[in-house]
């Protein structure tokens, strides 16, 4: 390894040169590159810091990454970067686990409360200067199924439990002694678990197994009046099937921070369906989150330079950090 390793920072135009990477100054050559500059910047580079975590530029530029040994993604989900070439390479992939868990859990609790208390309608009535009394729901005593038992799913479970909601999980293997979920069901038992829940929260990573898992059958399995919250990936859901379930009324509502396609086109039916709350993929983006992402990378860089085990190493065959 050269005395000054080359670190390429793939940015989205919102990371000023030098911002947050002061700890690396003098210890690495830092190259800032947008998507059009990535291939050129990757030549003879040692590290790629994918600060632009939604970028689709890596497949087209990876041919120039022959010397890259470590790819760090500034997100929990790494699916846009796990191309066949990256999977088959010796490159170590790490993610940003530890930054987004609590903010996303707060978002889910906030959306559950917004739907239960009918806050969107209250806002509309206020804008119309209308005083219209109505009843709302209590969340205490209701039930939730969190699909995805990694760190984000666990943070969601803990916060929903604090609100008095009975929480179960759905993961890769069944168990009854989980510290955060109590009971976790296996994939084969998912339809029965969906039928038990008032709130279904999608927080699973996007893999070949989970892509499109929320389809017509899954929505049909949910109990009448259930609500669906997606903070995982839009591609977990068959969007046309979700639209149909909402139109039929088999789902009472949905809160969607991620959608497919993304961004959602202006004329898409999801915008106007009753009981649907849409946010622009920002559930984890709290004040200071960008600085936290850079700080996490800088800490991992110190470990990498010392030859020590890196934090948050992704199993490229699974698509996420094992044990999460």
Automatic annotation (TrEMBL):
The keyword Oxidoreductase applies. Pfam families: 2-Hacid_dh_C. Residues 110-282 form the D-isomer specific 2-hydroxyacid dehydrogenase NAD-binding domain. Transmembrane segments: none annotated. InterPro entries: D-isomer_DH_NAD-bd, NAD(P)-bd_dom_sf. Keywords: NAD, Oxidoreductase. CDD domains: 2-Hacid_dh_1 (cd05300). It comes from Occultella glacieicola. This is D-2-hydroxyacid dehydrogenase.
